[in-house]
Design goal:
Layout (H helix, E strand, L loop, with lengths): L1 H10 L5 H29 L4 H5 L2 H7 L10 H6 L1 H8 L1 H29 L2 H38 L3 H11 L1 H15 L6 H13 L4 H15 L7 H17 L13 E6 L6 H14 L4 E5 L5 H14 L2 E4 L6 H15 L3 E5 L8 H17 L6 E7 L4 H14 L3 E5 L9 H9 L3 E5 L7 E3 L2 H9 L2 H5 L1
Parallel strand pairs: 1-4, 1-5, 2-3, 2-4, 5-6, 6-7
Antiparallel strand pairs: 7-8
Helix pairs in contact: 1-2, 9-20, 10-11, 11-12, 12-13, 13-20, 14-15, 16-17, 18-19
Length: about 475
């Protein structure tokens, strides 16, 4: 009360008594309440007040409430902030305990969760990484066994005997043989021979692609040998026909040029798709087996695929390989090939020419130019000009042989794809109509399935029955 009266005396000069008395009463009440609470809380909170003092939350609240109405009254200044801190003290303590507990745990848990999220990422990557090499290893394993299998097959076929090759040749000509012999047996089975029977005889031979002109000559010779009104003995007719075919083929039987010149040059021509590149690889392989040094030159510069295919064959048989740039002059490639083969001491140079359509004059003129360049750079070259012909093309093969023969002077025919065709008689038409020597015949895809032509062996395979061929 004393403090209140002092306060009133201090304010008396400035405030009216009507206002001062109620204010004084209010201040006295507040002071009384303050002292009552202070007496009750001093004893239990003597030790508790220390922790909140240590917490830094109190000074923040002390700074905000400086609203003393009169700075001259120290008790009021002390009384006003203290109760606020007291009332706020228990709440911040709990809040502080929560804040102190929560903040350390939150960052720790957040850090843990971040680490957990990062950890599963690498295992997923490591799971996919081992799968990729497995996928890469699998094709390598599949490619490896394929190469030796092809090489083994080729080596086995190189060691085949003549009997084995005859069996394959007879099997390859089986369709042509059946088309001739079975139909002839049907025609002459009645034993009657008349003009109608001989007409059917001609039709059967034409169907085997022996050609109209060749068939007419065969009819005349066989019918005259049988005689007018002769018996229709099938065995006798077959024997006479076989003899006439053999006589025609013997006229074109000619060995391949010997490798007397060094290098000996083989120039190979043909239309696209007849097996030209494959035949070159097989010819190169045959001379490589005789321990000759062979070079293959790709003068077909207009088709990159043909150059790549020839390179594969050269690598397969182990021969040298020379190629020019795509689109380069084929004659320039042939020129380089001749020079390189001379400097390297090559025994056989095989020049692959671009596939030519025999009806295109401009392309044929370019082929003539290539031949002239080779002949100019090496005396006597080319020593063989081989034309590859597909037996399945029938009479078109005869026209190809005629046009190429006139353009580049073909010295020999390589007849491919005789296996599985019913038109094996085309070789008789080429031999009889053009008189071009047949150098090689092919009856399969293996390296050993290309052999030098043997007229007697071919004729025997053409007229031997299936039962005889098996024995």
């Amino acid at each position: 009360m004393k403090e209140a009266t002092e306060l009133l005396s201090a304010l008396e000069t400035h405030i009216d008594l009507e206002i001062a008395i109620p204010v004084a009463v209010a201040v006295a009440v507040l002071a009384a309440v303050y002292f009552l609470f202070r007496k009750k809380e001093v004893s239990p909170e003597t030790g508790v007040q220390e922790p909140p003092e240590a917490v830094s939350a109190e000074p923040e609240e002390v700074d905000s409430p400086p609203e003393p109405p009169a700075p001259e009254a120290p008790p009021v200044q002390v009384a006003e902030p203290v109760p606020e801190s007291q009332f706020a003290a228990p709440e911040p303590v709990a809040a502080e305990e929560k804040e102190i507990a929560v903040p350390p745990t939150d960052p720790v848990s957040a850090a843990e969760t971040i680490e957990i999220r990062k950890e599963p990422v690498p295992p997923e990557e490591t799971e996919t990484e081992p799968e990729e090499p497995k996928a890469e290893e699998e094709p390598e394993e599949t490619e490896v066994p394929e190469e030796p299998e092809e090489e083994v097959v080729a080596e086995d076929k190189e060691d085949d005997t003549e009997g084995d090759f005859f069996s394959r040749l007879s099997l390859g000509l089986s369709k042509t043989r059946r088309g001739i012999l079975q139909n002839l047996e049907h025609v002459f089975s009645s034993g009657k021979i008349d003009d109608a029977a001989w007409d059917e005889f001609e039709e059967i031979l034409i169907m085997s692609d022996m050609g109209v002109a060749t068939t007419a000559k065969l009819r005349e010779k066989v019918s005259s040998a049988v005689g007018a009104g002769g018996s229709g003995d099938m065995e006798k007719i077959k024997t006479l026909l076989e003899k006439e075919v053999l006589d025609i083929l013997r006229e074109v039987e000619s060995p391949v040029a010997e490798l007397s010149a060094k290098p000996t040059v083989f120039m190979v021509a043909g239309v696209n798709g007849v097996g030209k590149t494959t035949s070159i690889g097989k010819i190169a392989n045959r001379f490589m087996q005789e321990e000759k040094k062979v070079m293959v030159a790709a003068a077909d510069t207009f088709r990159a695929a043909a150059v790549e295919q020839l390179g594969v064959w050269a690598e397969r048989v182990g021969s040298d390989f020379l190629r020019g740039q795509t689109g380069a002059d084929p004659s320039a490639v042939a020129y380089d090939a001749v020079k390189a083969s001379v400097s390297r001491g090559i025994d056989l140079l095989i020049i692959d020419t671009a596939g030519r359509v025999h009806t295109k004059t401009g392309l044929m003129d370019e082929l003539k130019k290539l031949r002239r360049v080779v002949a100019r750079e090496l005396e006597g070259a080319p020593h063989e000009t081989l034309l590859v012909v597909d037996a399945t093309t029938g009479q078109n093969a005869v026209e190809q042989a005629r046009v190429f023969g006139e353009a580049i002077g073909v010295t020999g025919i390589v007849l491919t794809k005789l296996d599985g065709t019913a038109k094996g008689g085309i070789i008789v038409a080429i031999a009889e109509q053009l008189g071009l020597p047949v150098k090689y015949i092919g009856v399969g895809e293996g390296l050993g399935d290309l052999r030098e032509f043997d007229a007697e062996q071919f004729t025997k395979a053409l007229f031997t029955s299936d039962k005889e061929a098996l024995h």
